[in-house]
Amino acid sequence: MKTFLDVPQKVHHGLWLATELAGVFRSGRALSLETVSRRAGISQGYLETIAGALRRAELISGQRGQGGGYRLARDPWEISVAEIIAAIEGPLDVVPCLGGAPCDLVDECANRDVWSRLRAQMVDFLAGTSVAEAAGLGRAKKLKSPIAKKHG
């Protein structure tokens, strides 16, 4: 079923990987993609692609060998959901013209402001939501966000 804002499966799985890593962050343990893959029912090769994007964005780090696996590169309270999404999918644009794509109607489009405001609110919310929050890690600390102040 298609939804209004159809979140790509790759983003959903990337956030899931990040929240799994958040759950073991305090212990200092690393998680293997094999373990995460088995828990989530996601192919390990697919997770490797996602982990590669998160690693290139310096959101996670990997270690090979005995006791190796992946860890978050920073405290999960300091990594935003927006960072995870941007690392995997790129800019958070709700319509192509906001990302700079050519549009014949750009000068006369009455809707552009609506989409622009939606994007701004969405980015504020996602930037103000930490991976730790997404993982349900109980501490009531939130990243600074005007949206969090209004609704949280």
UniProtKB/TrEMBL annotation:
Keywords: DNA-binding. Pfam families: Rrf2. It comes from the Bacteria. GO terms for molecular function: DNA binding; DNA-binding transcription factor activity. SUPFAM superfamilies: Winged helix' DNA-binding domain (SSF46785). InterPro entries: Tscrpt_reg_Rrf2, WH-like_DNA-bd_sf, WH_DNA-bd_sf. GO terms for cellular component: cytosol. PANTHER family: HTH-TYPE TRANSCRIPTIONAL REGULATOR ISCR, WINGED HELIX-TURN-HELIX TRANSCRIPTIONAL REGULATOR, RRF2 FAMILY. This is Rrf2 family transcriptional regulator. It comes from Candidatus Uhrbacteria bacterium RIFCSPHIGHO2_02_FULL_60_10. The lineage of its organism: Bacteria, Candidatus Uhriibacteriota.
